[in-house]
Amino acid sequence: MNQENSHHVGAGTPACTGAGTDILSEAIGSVRIGRAEACRKAESGSWGMRFAAFAGSGVHIVLRGSAWLVTATGRPRALKAGDVVVAPFGAETGLSHAPRLLSHLPPACPSGNTRSPDPTDVEFLHAAYLLDRGQVHPYLRSLPEVLTISPGHDRSSQLRSLTDLLAADVTDVQPGSGATRPALLDLLLTHALRQWLKQDGDVDRPDIGDPAIAVALREIHTSLDKPWTVQQLSEAVGMSRTAFTKRFTVVVGKPPITYLTGWRLSYGARLLRETTAPLATIARQVGYSTEFAFGAAFRREYGIAPGRFRDLQSRQVPAAQVRGV
């Protein structure tokens, strides 16, 4: 296992905790409220670029040629055509024609696609979900800052097909790209993380699968509209409140009510972005008795009123550039 992938995934954060609870799907869903951006770049000769840290998740994909991945920690890693690099929580990364220090690389140009009619040495695809509001899901933050996936492993054909589709979508922007780009990025991130877990993650991923906590998570996810309390959740899994709170915090990484509130607001943000449902309806769907209560909690989490958040999201147009990764 390479140095970038040698970190522990984090105790108690398996991709699937059983009982129908899929934390990987939940994590990908949480970044979906961000803006899906992508660009395609080509370089020749002596070159290098540094992508600033950002809130969100993103990927670098080597479409052609070779390069070196540079991070703030660990040694530079050689990349070849087809390799996929995932930044689960938007850590600072760099790409270069040769091993270099990250601090020595110039900032990546924020302009859109840079393709040349002349032959080039290397070509990349960069894509990311950029979160203007909220935080990256705890599961994604528990992963190493950079994951690398080689095309030589099983099911790599799926990643190659998704890469080809996203590259074509970026190269030839057509009506509907606002829908296709997030869908493709969802699939790309999901398949890349699945492949990494199979390739490198099983060594470090704890085999906890705590059935009691899995049941609690299932109850939260499938009945988000219920006015849950810690006492009710602990009774649902047959534990004392104190024991349940302690175990849930260890397994999930945060206390039950903190997790419940974060998931309610994250799901509420997705509904605001993806539906036209009235605010009062969304409030009830995510467990708030009134639109006012939902709005107050939403402002504390995202720093903006739900209506304003929806208005800003509806006015966004697909960007022709990607920032951060």
- Order the strands across the largest sheet as they lie in space: 3-10-5-8-11
Distance from first to last alpha carbon: 23 Å
Averaged pLDDT, please? 80
Helix content: 40-55%
Briefly note the structural class of the backbone: alpha+beta
Task: Give helix and strand order, one letter per element, not per position.
Answer: EEHEEEEEEEEHEHHHHHHHHH
The number of strands is: 11
Q: Rounded to an integer, what's the Rg over CA atoms?
A: 21 Å
What characteristic shape results from the CA principal axes? globular
Note the beta-strand portion.
15-25%
Main sheet makeup = 5 strands, antiparallel
Q: Supply the number of helical segments.
A: 11
Low-confidence stretches: 1-21, 201-208, 317-324
Textual characterization of the structure:
The two termini are 23 Å apart. The protein has helices spanning 23-31, 138-142, 156-171, 177-204, 211-222, 230-236, 241-252, 256-274, 279-285, 291-302, 306-315; strands at residues 16-18, 21-22, 35-43, 48-51, 56-64, 66-71, 77-80, 84-87, 93-96, 122-130, 147-149. 42% of the residues lie in helices and 18% in strands. The strands form three sheets. A five-stranded antiparallel sheet has the order 3-10-5-8-11, covered by helices on one side. Helix 1 (23-31) packs across helix 4, helix 3 runs antiparallel to helix 4 and helix 8 packs across helix 10 (291-302). The radius of gyration is 21 Å and the shape is globular. The longest helix has 28 residues, at 177-204. Mean pLDDT is 80; it is low at 1-21, 201-208 and 317-324. By secondary structure, it is an alpha+beta fold. It has eleven helices and eleven strands. Strand 6 and strand 7 form a beta hairpin.
